[in-house]
Each structure stands twice: as structure tokens, then as C-alpha cells.
Amino acid sequence: MLPPILKNLRIPVIGSPMFILSGPELVIAQCKAGIVGSFPALNAREKDGEPVLLDLWLTRISEELDRHNQANPDHPAAPFAVNQIVHRSNARLERDLEICHRHKVPIWITSLGARPEVNEVAHDCGGIVLHDIINNTFAKKAIEKGADGLIAVAAGAGGHAGPQSPFALVQEIRAWFDGPLLLSGSIATGRAVLAAQAMGADLAYIGSPFIAATESRAQPEYKQMVVDCGAEDIVTSSTFTGISGNYLAPSIRNAGWIPRRCRLRIRRRWISAPRPAASRKRPRRGARSGAAAKGSARSMRSSLRARSSTGWQANMLPPRPLSPRFKARRCCLRVSPAWPARHGNVVARGAVYACPAPRKPW
Ligand SMILES: Cc1cc2nc3c(=O)[nH]c(=O)nc-3n(C[C@H](O)[C@H](O)[C@H](O)COP(=O)(O)O)c2cc1C
């Protein structure tokens, strides 16, 4: 269910806020074209002693859109949105909230943390809050803290993006939430907008394609790069901000980095069980534990279980064992029968297991 302010958009799209690149020119052009335009409040930066730029931008946007609406009553402009980075590191947040409250900003987009006090300020001036999230857990937290709608930032989105498939993300959120839901991640055509709606989203949330727009504040070379690059040129990396994000390989190269080295390596969280000194020696290459060697038709699970009992392989078990017994092996290493006397370990099925923390394994 969409709130009235988002109901009559000519195109079901919100132009997403982009650091440095979106300013009043882009927002005004987007709103006049019938989609919600937005910019990060932090883009409005004045030098010391200069008038507050955020104040000036909001005045300019409101006045130009009012003029447009008076001249085009049949095609009124869409509302605009301001993005607040609500992370504690944003020292300007309080000042920016006050300015946006004074200007009665109609749509507030919050990112990097959900804060009830920010939502209250937005609601107090009649605005709605859309919070961007990358998974279902954050989605639930955002709604609990008072956001009105969600922006699902799925795999493939420009800037800080989540790793999840849009299908999975929208499906999980729609299982419990029937409020405004936006979807982002490589949406660039009418077909993709329709697909987002077919999946269950209300609106598409689009950023990267607008980088190349005349009104965007990107440099001409960067606009050309966005036009020239394809999906294979996108590098997912946490190197630059500490949070996983998508970047264009040529822009990484231009900044003096090697894109290949910046790619995010998703490490599997191997189970780390302490290894007794005796088991640290690597076995001969190709050697297999007795149980694993018995039959090549063994299931993967039983093979792993058997291998875990040889000790050195215990820290290579998959992270989510299914049975309680399998779980027990996470913390247990098979050791020599002399071990329990000194360490008070567990004897099970004729074998002795060393437990890092004493507990009953099964
Ligand atoms: C260059 C760039 C800068 C961005 N800066 C911000 C930002 O300051 N705040 C924010 O909430 N999202 C930011 N984003 C993310 C977008 O708001 C949005 O999630 C994303 O662009 C959607 O995916 P798409 O680019 O594939 O359309 C940025 C994205 C890009 C490409």
C-alpha cells in the first residue's frame, strides 16, 4: 500500500540519491519528468562563512517545482526527497534535520542505520521515511524503529549494495510487510521497472543511469565511462569505505588502484577448532582418513564427519552442520586415549574427543 504522496507518479520510479553527483539541477529535472528526485543532504557543502547551502538548495527546489506546477496543472511535478546518512559519524545530522524540518521535506530517505528520533522529526513535519536496507533483518529493525517504507538494495546496485538476489530479498520482505517497498540494483529500463513490480516491489529505485544525465554533477569523463562500461566492469569491494560497494574498474584504475586486488573475497567461515599439536602435521598429499577412504560413494556429510575425526581437517568443516552429532564435532577433535586423563574430555562411541570448552556433545 502506497501513501498518497507516492501514488500518482507518472513513472513508478525514485531517482536515488548519489554522493557528490546529485544536486538541485538533477532533482528538479527528475521531478518535472514525473519521478521522485533526491539528493544526499551531505552534498550541499558550503565553505566557512558562506550561507548554508542546504537551505539554499531546498528553497530553489521548492520554488522551481511550485512554478512548474502552476504552469503545468495537468502535469504536476513529482515530490522530492532528501537523503540523510544517519550514521553516528555524520556530525551535521542535527543541523540538517532542522533545516529539512523547516522546509517540510516531503520524503526522507535514511541510510546507514535506522534511528527513531530521525523518523520522529520527519513525521513531525508531515514527511514519510523510506529506509534503505540490504537484508530482511535490517528491514524488520527499520520498521520497528518507525520507518514508513523500505528500499531493498539488492545485488548489483551502485554504491553501497547488498549481496542478495532481488528475488530473495523482495520475497522475504513481502512475507511480512505490505507497506511501500522499493527495489534497487541495476534497474535501468522500463522492462526492469515492470519486473521489479512483478516481483512485489511498488517502485523502482534507480541511481547509476542518471550519472550520465546532463543535469548530473559528474565529470564528463566519468559520464562517458558509465556509458561505455558493462556489467563485467563492476568491481565489488570493501577496500574504499570498509563497507561492500560496487565500483567501475576504470575508475578504480584512475585512482591508482588495481581493480583485481580490490575485489571482495567472500571468505567462508570455516569452523575453527583448536588443533592438538600432534595433529598439526599435514598428512601426505592424497592421504585419506580411514573412514573417508572406505567408500567413494559415501555422502559428502559422512565423509566430512569422518575427516573431522582426524583432527587436522576439523577446521575445514562446512559452517552449518545439520545434525546435533555433527554439531558436536565442531568443538571436538579426536585425540589419543591418553588425552582425557589430562583434559577431562569426552568419550563417545569408543573414541576420545578433546573439547575446547567442556560440554556434552550429544
Ligand atoms: C555514485 C553513487 C553514489 C551514491 N551515493 C549514495 C548516497 O550518498 N546515499 C545513499 O543512500 N545511496 C547512495 N548511492 C546508492 C543509491 O542511492 C542506490 O542505492 C543505487 O544507485 C541503486 O542502484 P543502481 O545504481 O544500480 O540503480 C549511491 C550510488 C552511486 C552509484
Give an account of the 3D structure.
This protein folds into 2 domains: 225 residues, TIM Barrel, CATH 3.20.20.70; 78 residues, no CATH class. Helices cover 34% and strands 15% of the residues. The chain is built from 15 helices and 14 strands. An 8-stranded parallel sheet has the order 1-9-8-6-5-4-3-2. α2 packs parallel to α3 and α4 runs parallel beside α5. It is globular. The C terminus is likely disordered.
Provide the descriptors you would attach to this structure in a database record:
362 residues, alpha/beta, TIM Barrel, 2 domains, 8-stranded parallel sheet, 3-stranded antiparallel sheet, 14 strands, 34% helix, disordered C terminus, binds flavin mononucleotide
**Dominant shape:** globular
Each distinct ligand: flavin mononucleotide
Helix and strand element order: HEHEHEHEHEHEEHEHEHEEHHHHHEHEE
Predict the CATH topology of the largest domain.
Answer: TIM Barrel
Task: Tell me the domain tally.
Answer: 2
**What is the averaged pLDDT score?**
82
Instruction: Please state the second-level CATH architecture of the largest domain.
Output: Alpha-Beta Barrel
**Largest sheet features:** 8 strands, parallel
**Cα gyration radius (Å):** 27 Å
Helix content: 25-40%
The CATH homologous superfamily of the largest domain is termed Aldolase class I
Low-confidence stretches: 266-275, 286-335, 339-344, 356-362
Strand content range = 15-25%
Strand line-up across the major sheet = 1-9-8-6-5-4-3-2
Distance between the termini: 49 Å
Structural class by sheet pairing and helices: alpha/beta
> Helical stretch count?
15
CATH class of the largest domain, named Alpha Beta
